[in-house]
Amino acid sequence: MVKAKDFWEYLCNELDYRFFAGVPCKGLAPLYNKMSPQFMHYIPAVTENIAIRLVTGATLASTNAAVLMSAEKMKGLDLVFNTSNHIPLFIIAFGDSKFNTNKAIYNLELTDDLEGCLDKAISYLNNKKKSCVLFIGEGTI
Amino acid sequence: MKRYSAIRIFNKAMEEGDIGVFIGEGMCKEAFAYDRPGNLYLSKHENLLSVGLGMAMCSKRKIFMFCDDEYFLRNISEAAHIAVSKCENVYLVVLISGVYTDVTKAPTIYDSIMSLHGILFNMGFIVHDYKRQFRNTRNPIREINLIWNRIRGPLAVLLEVDKGTKNLPADYLSEKKSLLRTKEFIVSNEALAHNYEPPISLEEAFGREE
After folding, report:
1. What is the mean pLDDT of chain A?
2. B152 — phi, psi (to 5°)?
3. Cis? peptide before B169, omega within 30° of 0
């Protein structure tokens, strides 16, 4: 089991990801409870698509950013803008990887090796310039 | 005033380091005739005002977003996001024709809304309407430039324009090329950003935990 505090500490302080947008979901509650404006900036978006666009804008301004959402909402996402224009997205989603039907997005599941998982996701984003989803299963956080 | 003329005036009223995001097919065509290095043309997708807001939150540059009433009414929740963000470097310009300009010229619901100014003001915008102010001025570029240099956002500019459009070829920059250019422009030191601090200082917001 990964501690939410360790998750933020590694993602924000070590990997320098400090801009987040998303729509809250029950499964990510532990992460939301440990958020702090002292080390990160979070925007509660109206819809998942707006969260994605906000993060896209931040990425265009060369800021490391990520989306927080429920995996169940992945089907309704409009990712054509990002995939066709090669703007990589980092999505942190609660749920099972079966919800991602988009083959252009790399799937990764969070395990107890937090640092290894996050490093793998970030290196994929930076090297391949393609989007990546980090799925957080129930009870992992 | 024709939309084409309004776009020309607003395009020239922006500073060299500002970014103009033009949303919608017709808007992109007309804006490309007065292309600037800081212009971004987005025409094919939805929720594009949020891309501008994301850029504004993470850079010091002033971001001007131009859209028509058709797009604005369809994505009004994004305007709420812009208003509550309290970003001082974000400006939303809505060119209102009251019709679906690029498609059929059928009316939008704009005329039935009691006060769009009021809605935007209550969301948290500072609202400007240049219709009366520049009624007798043919080219108010300098005046608008002065206003935009002094005012802090989030600002919403509403301007009623004629229903007609100029017949221009759709040879404007592709979305991909335009985004690439903007990405380079944002971090470029040649066209300096406007000299003021962003709403939340980046050091303060993203500063490392002591």
Report:
1. 90
2. -110, 145
3. no
Residue A21 has which token pair?
Answer: 């947008």
Residues of chain A contacting residue B53, judged by C-beta atoms under 8 Å apart: 54, 57
- Reference A70, options A136, A3, A2, A140; nearest CA is A136
Structural domain boundaries, residue B19:
3-206
Is B50 touching A (CB cutoff 8 A)?
Answer: yes
Low-confidence ranges of chain A (pLDDT < 50): none
What per-residue confidence (pLDDT) applies to B191?
63
Give the N- to C-terminal CA distance of chain B in Å, as an integer.
Answer: 55
Domains, chain A, ordered by start: 4-134 (3.40.50.970)
Alpha-carbon distance values, B23 to B60, B181, B184 (Å): 21, 16, 20
Under 8 Å between Cβ of A107 and A135: yes
> CB–CB of A53 and B208 under 8 A?
no
CB of B207 within 8 Å of a chain A CB? The answer is: yes
- How many structural domains are present in chain B? 1
Q: What is the pLDDT of residues B154-196, one digit of tens each?
A: 999 999 988 877 788 888 888 899 999 999 998 887 666 554 4
